[in-house]
Specification:
Oligomer: single chain
Helix content: 25-40%
CATH superfamily: Gcn5-related N-acetyltransferase (GNAT)
Strand content: 25-35%
Distance between the termini: 43 Å
CATH class: Alpha Beta
Strand order of the largest sheet: 1-2-3-4-5
Shape: globular
CATH topology: Aminopeptidase
Number of domains: 1
Number of strands: 5
Structural class: alpha+beta
């Protein structure tokens, strides 16, 4: 049975490999990212001792005039093992990330899909487009 949780230190090599497979970044570049943006490391979905999916949550805040600022997380580097895609692992992990965010007393999870085709995937998993992205 799949388990979602914070990655364990001994799983770091697996998360490095998965990130590199999906996004191409070296383990060294990943460590710089973790040091600067997410020292707690990734959340993972593990099945039979193998990291099958991962994502990183970084802290963010949103302040609008006349409203109390909100604190939340930015979902980054969602990756699933290419050999196990289509099993719902990413969806399970996103759901866990939302629960984790709420348990931390935070208000929201946000992301910017890396490509247009991902908007539908994130919509199926509870996300709603909310901002106009300036380029």
């Amino acid at each position: 049975m799949a388990e979602c949780r914070q990655a364990l230190p001994q799983e770091r090599s697996q998360t490095h490999q998965l990130w590199q497979t999906v996004f191409g970044d070296t383990p060294q570049a990943q460590e710089v990212f973790y040091d600067q943006c997410a020292p707690q490391g990734p959340l993972v979905l593990v099945e039979e001792g193998r990291v099958e999916s991962m994502l990183v949550l970084t802290p963010v805040s949103l302040a609008l005039p006349g409203y109390t600022p909100c604190r939340g997380t930015y979902l980054y580097a969602l990756a699933t093992n290419p050999d196990t895609r289509g099993k719902g692992y990413a969806a399970q992990l996103i759901h866990y990330a939302a629960q984790w965010t709420a348990q931390q007393g935070l208000d929201f999870v946000c992301t910017v899909p890396a490509q247009p085709s991902l908007f539908q995937f994130f919509a199926k998993n509870g996300f709603t487009p909310a901002f106009y992205h300036l380029r």
